[in-house]
Amino acid sequence: MTLFLAAVVACLFGAGTFLVLKTDLLRVVVGILLISHAANLTLMASGLTRGKAPLYPLPEDEVSDPLVQAMTLTALVIGFAVTALLLGLAYRVYATHFSVDFDRLAEEEARREAELEREEVSV
Amino acid sequence: MTLALPLAIPWLSALALVALDGRRRIVGYGAIGALAATLAATAALAVEVWRDGPLASVAGAWPTGVGITLRADALSVAFALLTVSVLLVSLVHEVLVGVESRLFPALVLFLTVGLTGLFLTGDIFNFYVFFEISMISAYVVTGYGGRARQLSAGFIFAVVNLLGSFIFLIGIAATYHVTGSLEMGIVADRIADVEPSTVILIAVSVFVAFGVKLGLFPFHFWLPVVYASVRPAVAAILSGALANIGTYGVLRFGADVFPRELELGASALLTLGAITILYGSLQAMSRRTAPEVIAYSSIGQVGYVLIALAIGGPVGYAAAVLYALVNAGNKVLLFLAASLRGWLVGAAFFVGVLSVAGIPPAAGFFGKLEVLRAAIAADSAVLVALVLLGGALSVVYLLQIYQHDHWRPETALAAASSPVALRALTVAVAVAVLALGLWPEPLLAASREAAAALGGGR
Question: Are B402 and B353 in contact (CB under 8 A)?
């Protein structure tokens, strides 16, 4: 079970990292989302040392540690809020630049820097 | 009760202010009042802790070991006091300039909740929650201003720091897995029995998380873009208040929770610290605009904290705490003064330059002196030379900026003087830095107490 979870976490983290390195802002957001779920799964896995998940525990069942599930729930909520915030930011970037591509944004930035420098020289 | 007040005051007033339009003067003054009350509550807590020793209480009257602990020792109150003052100064500055976004005052208060909570918690997972509260407010504050540069800076800041947060979360999960507890004290006791090869992995992931926050050398790439494109008050908040998460985290987790791993990794930390100092100073020398120079300078300054921490022992920890505190003050002064014009502001900026370079009578002198003492205690000629070289380089790059902004007639005279209230605020910060340099006893005592609380005295 631990090995299986470790493999899933590794896949999620790897896929997330791959997406974060893309230039499209939306892919970056999805990448962050995948990485946050890798962290959440690790949190869940850290408490699975004994018993079963306490979905419907019978008195004779040994249940696993419920604290990690409370923590995961908190982390999930935080991850959700952060994703909403990132999407909002990406939208604001799109509304001001009409693009969500980092390369394009960087180009625009470089052009503006060059303009500023020219102004400074002429002063 | 005193323990909960620095959390409750900003939280409740932030909730009230969210509903109001922050662009109105009166709301801004309300937020300033709430922050001043928080500062007073934190100061009262600090006095109590310095007099009677660490305080702890369990939230919701749960028995110890079950509920979430709030805990205040000399280290946490020193950082809380500094952070709240920095936030207060930055908020006053922004209110005097004129707030542009309706949420800004409330966001600064939420940031205060996150930061004081983080310093005053004794529970690792709670640390993460407060950490996220302050980071989420910081992401929004970075985008404040709404111009294209600030928005993309905010996005980069958020993505890089979220990666750091999730790595920290994985570190927490691993800590819980090997120790079965989340309370820092219990974790520190139990972790001594765990295999060092396991714990070193956890310690590295925690260190990476805080390294990202601090902008240490291999994790620094996001920092200059962000610091150089946000508004001065926001830059002051990020460098003077938010970066304290990194220094406090490295000190608390390094010296308190993973002391054995800190010793194992000391040479790696020394190398990183040395590279950070040199890289930050050299990059700062090659930049021309003031915010960029100060941004690279703040990368470099963190290196000293790291070196002092790696040297360890009571002397090293005290030096690290003192340097972190003084450095935060310097950065606020420099970022605020660099955005203004007028002769007294020039003088204030110059005080900041002296303080960063470690020249008396500014407070930075004692920061450098303590790090130097730690380097001598470590018996390393290379470190002593590095600390002195770093100081010399910082004089060069900061004086370049001073000369460019205040001496060249076309830049100095063309710009009209800034409003009197803004200049007075900046001069007040400069006077505080000078006063701490002339009468450093309280600062030195606070950092020694903090180092003792860290187990440096153990």
Answer: yes
Strand locations in A1-123 (E): none
- Give A3's DSSP letter: H
- Are the Cβ atoms of B148 and A97 closer than 8 angstroms? yes
Counted across chains A and B, CB pairs separated by less than 8 A come out at: 91
Proportion of chain B in helix, strand, coil states, percent, rounded to 5: 80, 0, 15
Contact A85 B155 (CB under 8 A): no
How far, in Å, CA of B202 to CA of B455, rounded?
20
- Distance in angstroms (rounded) separating the CA atoms of residues B71 and B210: 21
Which one of A81, A90, A109 has the shortest CB-CB distance to B149? A109
User: What does the pLDDT look like over B146-190, one tens digit per residue?
Assistant: 677 778 888 888 999 999 999 999 999 999 989 888 888 888 888
Q: What is the pTM of this model?
A: 0.91
pLDDT digits (tens, 9 = 90+) for A66-118: 888 889 999 999 999 999 999 998 888 888 877 777 777 777 777 777 777 67
User: How many CA atoms lie less than 13 Å away from B375 in the CB half-sphere?
Assistant: 22
- Closest partner residue to B169 among A39, A45, A81, by Cβ? A39
ipTM of this predicted structure: 0.88
> At residue B456, does pLDDT exceed 50?
no
For residues B136-159, b (16+ Cβ closer than 10 Å) or e, as one string? bbbbbbbbbbeebbbbbbbbbbbb
Nearest to B166 among A36, A85, A89 (CB): A36
